[in-house]
Amino acid sequence: AQKITQTQPGMFVQEKEAVTLDCTYDTSDPSYGLFWYKQPSSGEMIFLIYQGSYDQQNATEGRYSLNFQKARKSANLVISASQLGDSAMYFCAMREAGTNAGKSTFGDGTTLTVKP
Amino acid sequence: SAVISQKPSRDICQRGTSLTIQCQVDSQVTMMFWYRQQPGQSLTLIATANQGSEATYESGFVIDKFPISRPNLTFSTLTVSNMSPEDSSIYLCSVVSGLHEKLFFGSGTQLSVL
Lengths: 116, 114
Known about the structure:
The structure holds two protein chains of two kinds. By secondary structure, chain A is an all-beta fold. Chain A has strands at residues 4-5, 10-14, 19-21, 24-25, 32-39, 46-52, 60-61, 64-69, 74-79, 88-96, 105-106, 110-115. In chain A, strands 2, 5, 6, 10, 11 and 12 form a six-stranded mixed sheet that branches. Chain A has a four-stranded antiparallel sheet with strand order 3-9-8-7, with no helix packed on it. Chain A has a two-stranded antiparallel sheet with strand order 1-4. The mean pLDDT of chain A is 93. Chain B has strands spanning 4-7, 10-13, 19-25, 31-37, 43-50, 56-57, 68-72, 75-80, 89-97, 102-105, 109-113.
């Protein structure tokens, strides 16, 4: 069973508007970490934001915030005030406690296009 | 944070040949990780490279096809051997660093096999 599901292959947003990228996950481990990464067309992967399963508050990093709903097993990324440079592929990833620190499971990604 | 230099950034190769990808980290790390991203798809972990021991391969990946070297704590190579068009992918090396042990990635190697 897929552990990370990103149901939106592609999303469009108008510049300066907010956008939410969906991510649901599946795990029986009570301790895990959730990550979002950005991959521009250049191919590099850039870390955006982290949410721990025991964190009481939703994570925020600048224009990025994470809408973490533990009971629903969802960790949606919210990008506020979209910029043209936000156009990229976005990946949600999870790492369960006790696993190889580098062994994250990635979703299939969402391609975000910001329109001027 | 960690800064990772990866090369080549891209290459076009002939079927049956091999390509070695190099990855240099700006700090000493115990483990380095190699991921593959096939066209339009997600990232899949190929193997974990440990200094001083054999790499650990994930299901579906074998040492004969993807030999890895890890001569020291800042450097690793991944070789894609006897390439076929199905090996056309982006290959990324990564390390875990910093708060929350997040992954830092090299800039990737875009490989096309003709």
